[in-house]
Write the structure tokens for this entry.
Amino acid sequence: MNFNVLSFLFDNLVASGVIGGYVAISLIVVNVLTHVYKESLTKRVQSSPNRYHPIIGALMGAIPGCGGTIAASIMYKNDKLSFGGLLAAFITTLGEGSFVLLGASTEPSVPIDSNLKAFAIVNIVGLCVGIIVGSLSDALKLKGFNFDINYKMTVKPADIGTGSRSSFEKIIEQAGLYLILGTTLFLTPGSIMALWGGGIASIEEVTVVMCLVMTVASIIYFVVQTFFLNGHCHSVSHQNIRSVLVESVMDITMVISYVFVGLVVANFVIDILVGQEQFMSWMNESELLVVVLAALIGVTPGCGGMIAVAVAYVTIPNFPIAALISAGIATSGDGIFPLFASNKKEALTISVLSLAIAIIVGYGVLFIEM
């Protein structure tokens, strides 16, 4: 079999850009709305009785992205949210992996609405499990393995747009901001029309080029920010909409970079190394193992693991929804980092509990499907 490396990479770059269009639109809208309503949300939580905290925490976790869990971690540290509410938020969240499912599909045979349906199912299951487990946790007065409650955070949250920065950093930030937002603006009409199975035929070739630009620019920006400028971090507070957009661009480029790597690995293994028929045979025979592996991948700190599983779901035919649910419950997203900074053992407690619950629920969904 002839394997054209350049053609293979080109196809995956374009496919990542297609997903990136949905990711960018969803992420920007969610981040802006979260910024606008953050103070109102915090006040409502503070005024609510503790018995409602698991419900509030689960709803915060259901917000696409990591903003909800980051806010929950800070509120818990300041004694504004119960441990059950915090646990519910982490059980419910899909992190940045949620944006991969929001209308994203690289397979013509997979309707866009099927991924939206999966997004809804995973969130509903996560909400129910999060509220139940969080309520039980508060009823049993579980607070994790608490230690040194006066421990101070040594990692200061970065407020984007402040402090002394080099001209190079400012140029990279500015270029990335305008390039990614400009490309997103161009892709928005086609992405919206694709939700109903349509498209814009007159600019189809230009759209392919823009998808390619989106992926390449995202990978370059993500690599430079992460490995050279150490700029890929979440800010606890934002001064204005521009700082929200700057962080949104950071998140967009991170997700698209992970999506590209995931697509390359998945498509290479399935189409080149193993073959689709053999892989499908393995998938059907090893669903129990897939659920456990998905949970183990999802529980890794940050959003990378959940993004990888979400990419697998939208890429691999018949990927079990139980495995996606398992990863969704296990993942903690970037919200785990501020919790690790203030109380490592409680963060570890949440990770272990989420992993165990994820496997149990995943197997339960598999049993129901049989």
The chain is about 75% helix and 0% strand.
